[in-house]
Structure formats: structure tokens, C-alpha cells
Amino acid sequence: MGKMMFGQVEETVVTQKEFPLQKAKEVLQNDVIAVIGYGVQGPAQALNLRDNGFNVIIGQRQNSPSWQKALDDGWQPGSTLFDIDEACQKGTIISNLLSDAGQIALWPRIEKHLTQGKLLMFSHGFGVTYKDKTNIIPPADIDVALVAPKGSGRSVRKLFLDKKGINSSYAIFQNATGKALEKTLAYGIGVGSGYLFETSFEKEVYSDLTGERGVLMGALAGIIEAQYEVLRAHGHSPSEAFNETVEELTQSLVPLVGENGMDWMYANCSTTAQRGALDWAPKFKAATFEVFNELYNEVKNGNEAKRTIDKNSQENYRSELQKELDEMHNKEIWQAGRAVRSLRPDREQMQKAQKEDVVNA
């Protein structure tokens, strides 16, 4: 493990230089990793581990869409694909990648297979952190840890296939065997992490829930819709409002931020854009700072967890959720977005045409 400066703060980070893949495979050479759940994170982590040469099996409810997806991905029933109970029994490392609601519902089935010395792995601290609401309380004689990739399952898999990797946090909740840290880092390298940074179960879930409700999804959707509606109210067309609000953000500016940072993106925009952004950014920060404080406190005190669990446990939850998602899907801004995306030039065709122009010139 190494130390790295982030601004003025020193953090513990682990890269494949300090913990190479070969070492990870040696650490887990006698372990069977049972990935429970094949929905969002499950496929990506399981496939990455398999491709990296680890002993992986899948635990999934039979005759479900996810069971079929596992079959399509090459997992073999009775060999590498089992029902949840059998996979938990066989696994020495049980990676619980069910949804938060699924973890609550199936905890009694998983708990009975957590025999002494096993490692229970999570990619989210929700169930353990809010144990008073989830009843997920691991036995004291097992290791409990998390490796949380900072991206969707699709991103975890795509970046792995692109040989880039994705950053992940890691945390140790219980170290009954004395080997929890080494095995957790090996697991993190195995799923293709670019680097791993240390956290705790509480900090992981607090930052994750705040991020999802904030900049990553909730706040992003809110400010995008606000700007779009202001432009439309002042007579701008749907195409113009969408392009100035979303298309330029996602196709031009955010990639620049991802590559080199917000400061670099500012430095490479027009002086008019720079002046306006520098003047208005503090106003937006001031307008939203207390909202973020309120959000963080609601996450920390458990109110957000309670709302989520209460909603997810209702019998009509999925149908009511679908109504909300359909409402977003049908908003003019996202209808305009579908039209704009359909008009994007095919880059491959453009490059091919440009090459033909050169050849024929």
C-alpha cells in the first residue's frame, strides 16, 4: 500500500504496482468466490474475476431473467451456476451483490451459510450500516469487507475490457481471521480496479447515497430540467434548449473535465464562457450548499434509508416506480434528447468518408 497526496491531504491507496494481479491470484488461490445476485454489479464483477483467472461461481434465483442472463454469459448449471443456497454453501468468499432490498429479503438464507472463517463481501455499506432497519448483522467469527467500484456495472465491465479499470473504495468491517485486508485487496484487484482507496462502511454509504441523490443523478436531473424549462419559457426551440443544456454538457464539456479537470476545461473554453462561469459558479454553490447539507444529514441520520426501505417493501413498489420513470421518460426534454441523439453523425461513417475523400483526391 502506498500514500498519495490529494490536494493537501494524504490518503492510503493501492494500485496494481503495489498489489499485482499475480499476487491477488496467489492470495485467493484456495478460495471459491460465490457472487450472489446477477443484476447490476454481479455480471461485471463475476466476469472480470473469471477473466482474470479466479475461481468464481454464481448464486442466483432459478428461472429468473438474471438466471437466463448468467446462462447467456457462459455460466454452467451445476458447475459454476447454482441457486443461492448452494452457492453460499460452496463459497469461501460470499460476495453479496443483490440489491439493497434483495439483501434484506434474502439475508436469512445467506446468514445460515456464513460459517466460521468465511469472508462476506459487499459493494455497498447500506445493509450493515443501517442494520437497525435491515437486520443484517453478520456473525462475529467471519470476515466482513467491501469493495465498491465507483461506477455502474456496465462501466466496470467496459473499462475492464478496454484495459483501463475503474477506481474502487475498500473497507474492513470485521477481521476475524486476520486475513481480511489482504483478501479484500486481492478481490479489488481481481475485479479490475484501477486503484483502491480506503474508507469505512459508514463513509461509503453516506457518500454513495449523497452522490446519487446529488450531483450524480438527483441534482443533475434537477438543474438540467430547470435550465431547459427556462430556455423554453423564453421561446427557445426544444432542439436549441436541449443542445445548450444537455448535448454540449455530455458530448463536449464533461469528457474534458474527466480527462483533465474542471480547471483545464475552463482554460480551454472561450474567454466569454470563462468570465460567465467564474461569476456564476459561486451563486450556484451558495444556492445549493444548504440543500447538500440537508441531504447529507438525512442520509447520516438514517431517514433516507428508512424512506428507501419503506418504499421498496410496498407490494406495488415496482408499478409505482415505473409510473415515475415513465413520467420522466415522457417529459419534453427527454423526448427532444431522443430526437437529437438520432441525428448525431455516425463517427465511423464520417471517418470512412473522409478516408475515401483523401484516397480519391
Q: Explain this structure to me?
A:
By secondary structure, the protein is of the alpha/beta class. It has two domains: 2-200, Rossmann fold; 211-351, N-(1-d-carboxylethyl)-l-norvaline Dehydrogenase, domain 2 (Orthogonal Bundle), CATH 1.10.1040.10. The chain has helices at 21-27, 41-51, 65-72, 84-90, 100-111, 126-129, 131-134, 153-161, 180-190, 201-213, 218-233, 238-260, 262-267, 271-300, 303-312, 317-329, 332-342, 347-360, and strands spanning 2-6, 9-15, 33-36, 56-59, 81-82, 93-96, 119-122, 143-149, 166-174, 193-198. The chain has a ten-stranded mixed β-sheet, with helices on both faces. Helix 3 (65-72) links the parallel strand 4 (56-59) and strand 5 (81-82). Helix 1 packs across helix 9 (180-190) and helix 2 runs parallel beside helix 8.
